[in-house]
Design goal:
With 689 residues, this protein is of the alpha/beta class. The chain is built from 24 helices and 25 strands.
Length: 689
């Protein structure tokens, strides 16, 4: 740095030049003295000349001395500063524009094992600090280098650091010193320093681990299981179950409080809950092993709430998790951590409830809703099938019994339900029995009740917007609940053990009013819904299924007439065979096929083909893919050996243990097939299948 370029600036410059600036005041005073007295003015002029001469001499001589003193001070100050930075306990380094080390203090060298004066790139010193995280020229988003500051966390050799990087202009550093140099340099350095937060992180993790988790444990089939045991041994079975639950929870340092004969409250720490999750809640299987001659194995439903700030919020999460577990059929554990929900178990069929008390209570509640509404709109899922149509016509008949206007919302009537729809319209003598989305939205108001049948996911309904128009929403479904559900339902009746929505509607009709009388075609529709979902009463049938069928027979349902409705056209028969012809075995136990031919209802063809594929020996589950309206649909079927509902949930769908499906938007059949295979492979590896 040449002396010609060195200059004083700021307050130092003003301090050194003040005698010269004072000369102006003396000259003015001298001029005024000439007006007062010429002789006095001459004396003053001599004094002013001598003052200016002395001031100029001192300024010229002192400027060099002052500059040298400042340079000496700056050098000493810089040495002290450098020594302080060198011995600073916080790791600190300077990087060039490309992220290469220029200088580092001793703490940085010791922490990251860097030699003194090393010129290595910071990304090679700290592997987790990738190049895209550096505020380099190529990656800088800030136009002003001084604004380029980044602060994040990283881990190095088991230690946690919070690091900060700030871009500092070289020109700014020089300009801020007492002595400056005129530079046109636009380059900058990166100041990089770290704070060891290992202890803070460990304490935070420990705090998280010791936070409370609140859980609920319900025995799904307590009364039903006791009925299969001799009277004298019932108390022993209850005691064994109680002992099993307490023993399993005590192993995880949990507090267990029995609320009722079949309900327990559990409080434990999050770290112990993670152990239960790692064991995939083995208590679910351990409870089934309790047997003293009872014909029915006991199953548990478990719901845990975690991640909230208080016990009350965690308890609310646990209740929501329990509601979801029961809605999905029981025999499973669900952990709700904020908005995140994790499922465990759920591989077995839900035990059928013999009592109809719940059906009667729900029927009376539905009656009050119908009587308090001006209009009833009933809708099922997209691509309405015969089960959704049957349940819908059952609700419509109940509404008309109370002299209410009722309509079924169906946007596209598929070929599989067209014959039944035509028969219903002719029998009801109502051309507007079935309306589309636009008509439904026009009719809906605050006094309209929307009743959903055979669906419990808002996005799967025929008209999701309709639920935002109406205040009263009723859900009547037999599918297991998933994470997506209808939050603001006035009445929710979801029974996964039921064979079909038509079965549930038939039960409700028996309790809602004594005056309900089905027309033969309406009974046919409900009966057809049960037949389709049970594959002609071969799967998921219970005592109540046959009782519902008997009720429909008494109301005029004709089996022969229904079977005639199910006869396929030649084109549909060929289409189903085409879908079956593409079958291939995956892992020697899963039959996977697809249908890409022409059909008015490709999803129906896929569902029928999936049913047929179960007749092949050694097939544990069948999957048939089809494409409709830019969505790939998957129909999944099994004979209780594999829970296809869990598989479809991984793909965004749901359903039952033996009948399930999924919709994947915007992908081809080949891509959907690949995702299905990856899901099967992953679940096999995790032991979920």
């Amino acid at each position: 740095m040449g002396k010609a370029k060195i200059r004083l600036k700021g307050q130092i410059r003003s301090y050194v030049q003040w005698p010269l600036r004072f000369s102006v005041l003396i000259i003015i005073f001298n001029i005024i003295m000439y007006f007062v007295n010429i002789k006095a003015g001459l004396y003053t002029s001599v004094f002013a000349f001598l003052y200016i001469l002395i001031a100029m001499t001192l300024y010229v001589r002192s400027k060099t001395i002052v500059i040298n003193d400042f340079i000496s001070f700056a050098t000493q100050y810089g040495q002290v500063q450098k020594q302080l930075l060198r011995e600073l306990e916080i790791p600190y380094a300077l990087l060039d524009e490309n992220g290469r080390l220029i200088w580092a203090n001793k703490a940085f060298e010791d922490t990251f094992h860097v030699k003194k004066n090393s010129q290595r790139s910071i990304t090679s010193v700290i592997p987790d600090l990738t190049k895209d995280k550096l505020p380099l020229k190529d990656h800088a988003e800030e136009p002003d280098p001084e604004a380029g500051q980044k602060e994040e966390m990283l881990r190095f050799e088991g230690q946690d650091f919070r690091y900060s990087m700030k871009k500092v202009s070289v020109k700014t550093m020089i300009r801020d010193s007492p002595v400056t140099e005129e530079l046109d340099n636009d380059s900058y350095l990166i100041a990089f320093f770290l704070f060891d937060e290992t202890d803070v992180t460990r304490l935070r993790e420990k705090l998280e681990q010791t936070k409370p988790a609140v859980g609920l444990i319900y025995i799904d089939n307590y009364d039903e299981a006791l009925q299969t045991v001799e009277d004298v041994r019932r108390s022993l079975l209850a005691a064994l179950v109680d002992r099993q639950i307490n023993k399993s929870m005590a192993a995880h340092d949990a507090i267990v409080k029995k609320l009722e004969k079949d309900k327990y409250l559990v409080i434990l720490q999050q770290k112990d809950l993670r152990q239960l999750e790692e064991k995939r809640f083995s208590i679910l299987e351990e409870a089934k092993n309790v047997n003293i001659g009872n014909e029915m194995a006991l199953t548990l439903s478990i719901g845990f709430g975690v991640g909230a700030e208080s016990y009350t919020e965690n308890y609310d999460h646990a209740r929501n998790a329990m509601d979801l577990a029961l809605g999905r059929g029981g025999d499973q554990a669900i952990v709700k951590n904020g908005d995140q929900i994790t499922y465990f178990g759920g591989k077995s069929m839900m035990t059928e409830k013999y009592t109809r008390v719940k059906a009667r209570v729900k029927a009376h509640a539905l009656r009050e809703i119908i009587e308090g509404s001006d209009q009833i709109l009933v809708m099922g899922h997209q691509i309405t099938d015969i089960d959704a149509l049957g349940a819908a016509i059952g609700v419509v008949r109940a509404a008309k019994t109370f002299n209410k206007n009722a309509n079924i919302v169906i946007n596209d009537i598929s070929s599989s339900i067209r014959p039944m729809v035509d028969s219903l319209i002719e029998a009801e003598d109502e051309k507007d029995l079935i309306i589309n989305n636009m008509q439904a939205l026009e009719r809906a108001d605050k006094n309209t009740a929307v009743i959903l049948v055979d669906v419990n996911k808002p996005s799967y309904t025929e008209c999701p917007e309709l639920m935002n128009r109406c205040q009263t929403i009723v859900v009547l479904d037999h599918h297991r609940q998933g994470e997506e559900k209808i939050e603001n339902a006035t009445l929710s009746y979801i029974e996964p053990y039921a064979s079909s929505a038509s079965e549930m509607a038939a039960e409700i009709l028996q309790y809602i009013n004594d005056r309900v009388k089905l027309k033969p075609v309406e009974a046919d529709c409900l009966y057809a819904g049960i037949m389709v979902d049970t594959n002609n009463f071969m799967i998921r049938t219970g005592v109540r299924t046959f009782e519902a069928a008997a009720y429909l027979r008494r109301n005029g349902a004709d089996v022969t007439r229904v079977r005639k409705l199910f006869r396929d056209s030649m084109e549909a028969y060929k289409a189903r065979n085409e879908a079956i012809s593409h079958v291939e075995m995956f892992e020697d136990k899963y039959a996977i096929s697809y249908f890409d031919g022409k059909s008015e209802s490709p999803t129906v063809v896929a569902a029928q083909a999936a049913n047929e594929l179960l007749n092949i020996s050694n097939v544990r589950a069948s999957f048939v893919l089809s494409n409709y309206q830019n969505k790939t649909y998957i129909s999944a079927r099994s004979y209780e050996e594999v829970n296809v509902q869990l598989i479809m949930e991984r793909l965004g769908g749901g359903g039952h243990m033996t009948v399930a499906g999924a919709q994947i938007e915007g992908v081809s059949i080949e891509e959907g097939k690949r995702q299905l295979m990856e899901t099967l492979r992953a679940m096999e590896k995790e032991g979920e299948l």
